[in-house]
Amino acid sequence: MKSFSTRHLIGIKNITEDDIQLIFETADNFKEVINRPIKKVPSLRDITVANLFFESSTRTRVSFELAERRLSADIVNFTASSSSVSKGETLLDTVNNILAMKVDMVVMRHPAPGACVYLSRHIPANIINAGDGTHEHPTQALLDAYSIRETLGDIAGRKVAIIGDILHSRVALSNVFCLKKLGARVRVCGPPTLIPKYYSELGVEVSHQVRETLQWCDVANVLRIQLERQDIKYFPSLREYHQYFGITREMLDSLDKEIVVMHPGPINRGVEITSDVADSRQSIILQQVENGVAVRMAVLYLLAGQKSQ
User: Fold this and answer.
1) Is the pTM for the entire model greater than 0.90?
2) Confidence band for 97, pLDDT divided at 50, 70 and 90
3) What is the reported pLDDT for 25?
4) What CATH number is given for 138-288 in this structure?
5) According to CATH, where is 3.40.50.1370 located in the chain?
6) How far is CA 102 from CA 6, 49, 260, 302, 306, in A?
7) Residue 250 has pLDDT above 90, yes or no
8) pLDDT-derived band of residue 94, with 50, 70 and 90 as boundaries?
9) What are the DSSP E strand ranges found in the chain?
10) Which fold has domain 12-136+289-304?
11) Nearest to 251 by CA among 280, 229, 223, 290
């Protein structure tokens, strides 16, 4: 049986195409499980997982917790705002105290890029990155790619556009790494102020024209404007952003083909995407949410197999 090549899932950059395909094949099996009347399997019955969220999260946290419960793991939930972190405790001390309670795996979201790498070098538990600053969000990229594969078949050769706030997005970077490894053509699109210059060095196309990009792509993955991360103004107003970069029904109807629309959530309806697009037949947003549980079950299961290495 094939096995995962690493003890941790820190980022898509650190895993291989074979790892990604193994996750997808394992997720296929778990998707069957979560659609059965009895949705649990005993795969992680002897494993304790700590969910450490130093930033707010709804979808990712619930998705991981559900995945862990479906695998019969024991779960410890940790929120920074209600912990000793608010009293000045360091990240390493916090985690070591949790590990002293015999935790096997850590799922962590943290505002500092590289926090998961730091942790992986200092503690023996398996680490899963649930988002570190504006760096990476590997499981989101995996579930996005898995959803494209499920909808269109093979990802190789497909044209995927990532549209919106690229600068502040960890989803965008992980998606680029994942899609490129799977042979897709990738384009990022948004205002010049929201696309870092280094993206042109990642082997992706860069565009500032939304209509032309929609005509080019097979899949549009639309990202929200992350106002909470913006310390200066990158565009005049949300109204103006929507006017020039928002995805509308009229835009999709003007294309000479039907494209797939995605969004990692949360959606700012009426800003980066309108409700009649988000809720349309072309949208696979809720499919992404469902697939997120199966993909995260696959990641947890595969990493648990590396526990003794």
Assistant:
1) yes
2) confident
3) 97
4) 3.40.50.1370
5) 12-136+289-304, 138-288
6) 21, 10, 44, 20, 17
7) yes
8) confident
9) 48-53, 74-79, 105-110, 126-132, 159-163, 185-189, 205-207, 219-222, 260-262
10) Rossmann fold (3.40.50)
11) 280
